[in-house]
Amino acid sequence: MQERPTWDEYFMQIAELVSSRSTCLRRQVGAILVKDRRIIATGYNGAPTRVSHCAEVGCLRQQLAIPSGERHEICRGIHAEQNGIIQAALHGVSTQGAVLYCTTQPCVQCAKMLINAGVERIVFRGGYPDPLARELLCEAGIVVEQWKENQEG
Known about the structure:
By secondary structure, the protein is α/β, with parallel strands linked by helices. 33% of the residues lie in helices and 19% in strands. The chain has a five-stranded mixed β-sheet, with helices on both faces. Strand 3 (99-104), helix 5 and strand 4 form a beta-alpha-beta unit. Helix 5 runs parallel beside helix 6.
């Protein structure tokens, strides 16, 4: 019999699948919000509903050679974590006490939103050049863990 994945492994695999819907040309990110081992919302990075995606019109950040982690306001897209919080709000689902599983460490903007959304734990796979985000999450008492393949969880 095949061994079942741990809960963290299971949810990280789902976050990875969610990232496949991303329309960002630079980085495909997926996020899921989980409460009591149930998925309450998902999000991936891309343009808002009814707005052309970067895959269709090009990436302004690429055209301007803006480095990763800088000038987030110059982007058509919404981050995966933000889309997850928005999806929960749109459907009237509380994120208080939730766990975020994300394919990339949240940036400072997302970190501030996750703090105020009541997220208690963040598990992410890939790093992101934003030490202030980690500092704020730590100060807020949110458990932040970088996922390593084959780890227990």
